[in-house]
């Protein structure tokens, strides 16, 4: 069902963003409405004209994607807690990011130094002309040319695959470290090769925005390698496969990747279903524990604030 957007008052009477939009304002992040919301942190009243000016000024540079980007449908439980969808289900970008954070932090800081990853929404947003420039600006801040490997989760046509930039900071003339791209897909029938034109345009734009000296023709010839990897059995497993690809790749990636040694460890028998199940169970358990700790802390802070507001301070036993 399409969300109905409530219209602001039609007169010039003062109103607060908090009073008008209520709790729904908390769902907006880094968009024009978020900017408007900053005006109400001290319950400041603004006029309809002021509200419209904020929207007019920022709606193009800071558009709102709440209705266009897939988000997790959260199930409310007692105490304001939320349930994270199980990893075996089809993952939306928000849920994927929760699990990705667990995978990432399972490795030591020293291990992570050679890697980085892009937000799972960025490739999808890059495909839209209205947000392309902003995405390229975000990527520039990640300093991907200083990393050996860059994970780019790709979600297109409701299917997850994994793009990996390899040694982008090295010369194409190197004999031991080959700049290349890997595209891992757990569903060959999805025809991963059809993404190549958009991937190559994506890479060309990244090099251009970074001000790299490489010739455009050289960049266009960066190899795109598609290894034969284990295939999913169900329709909704692609997200968990991508997470496991990332987990294993971080464990076994060589310090120097050369296309002459491709595909290295990436083959159809790379891992079995039992090891994948173990990974899924571990990830769900760790994320559940993390959410429980956060919920407990949040509840504790809220209780303390409530008690102070009532002139009472509770001490732990």
From TrEMBL:
InterPro entries in UniProt: Papain-like_cys_pep_sf, Peptidase_C48_C
Cross-referenced SUPFAM superfamilies: Cysteine proteinases
GO molecular function terms listed in the Swiss-Prot or TrEMBL record: cysteine-type peptidase activity
A Pfam family reported for this protein in Swiss-Prot or TrEMBL: Peptidase_C48
An example Gene Ontology biological process: protein desumoylation
Domain of life, source organism: Eukaryota
Keyword line: Hydrolase, Protease, Thiol protease
Ubiquitin-like protease family profile domain boundaries: 44-249
Family in the record: Belongs to the peptidase C48 family.
PANTHER family: CYSTEINE PROTEINASES SUPERFAMILY PROTEIN (PTHR46915:SF6), UBIQUITIN-LIKE PROTEASE 4-RELATED (PTHR46915)
Protein name: Ubiquitin-like protease family profile domain-containing protein
Organism name: Chenopodium quinoa
């Amino acid at each position: 069902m399409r969300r109905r957007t409530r219209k602001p008052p039609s007169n010039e009477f003062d109103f607060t963003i908090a009073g008008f939009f209520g709790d729904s304002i908390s769902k907006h992040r880094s968009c024009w409405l978020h900017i408007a919301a900053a005006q109400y942190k001290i319950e400041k009243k603004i006029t309809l004209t002021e509200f419209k000016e904020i929207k007019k000024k920022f709606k193009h540079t800071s558009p709102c994607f709440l209705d266009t980007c897939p988000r997790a449908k959260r199930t409310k439980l007692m105490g304001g807690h939320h349930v994270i969808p199980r990893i075996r289900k089809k993952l939306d970008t928000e849920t994927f990011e929760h699990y990705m954070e667990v995978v990432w932090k399972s490795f030591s800081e020293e291990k992570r130094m050679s890697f980085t990853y892009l937000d799972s929404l960025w490739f999808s947003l890059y495909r839209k002309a209205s947000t392309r420039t902003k995405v390229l600006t975000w990527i520039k801040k990640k300093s991907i040319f200083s990393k050996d490997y860059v994970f780019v989760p790709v979600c297109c046509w409701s299917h997850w695959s994994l793009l990996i930039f390899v040694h982008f900071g090295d010369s194409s003339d190197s004999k031991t470290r080959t700049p290349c791209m890997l595209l891992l897909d757990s569903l060959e029938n999805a025809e991963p090769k059809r993404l190549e034109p958009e991937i190559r345009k994506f890479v060309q734009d990244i090099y251009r925005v970074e001000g790299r000296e490489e010739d455009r023709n050289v960049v266009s010839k960066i190899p795109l390698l598609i290894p034969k990897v284990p295939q999913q059995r169900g329709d909704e497993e692609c997200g968990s496969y991508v997470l496991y690809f990332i987990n294993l790749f971080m464990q076994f990636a060589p310090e120097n990747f050369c296309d002459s040694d491709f595909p290295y460890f990436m083959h159809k028998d790379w891992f079995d279903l039992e090891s994948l199940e173990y990974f899924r169970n571990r990830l769900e358990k760790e994320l559940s524990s993390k959410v429980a700790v956060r919920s407990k802390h949040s509840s504790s802070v809220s209780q303390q604030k409530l008690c102070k507001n009532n002139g009472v301070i509770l001490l732990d036993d």
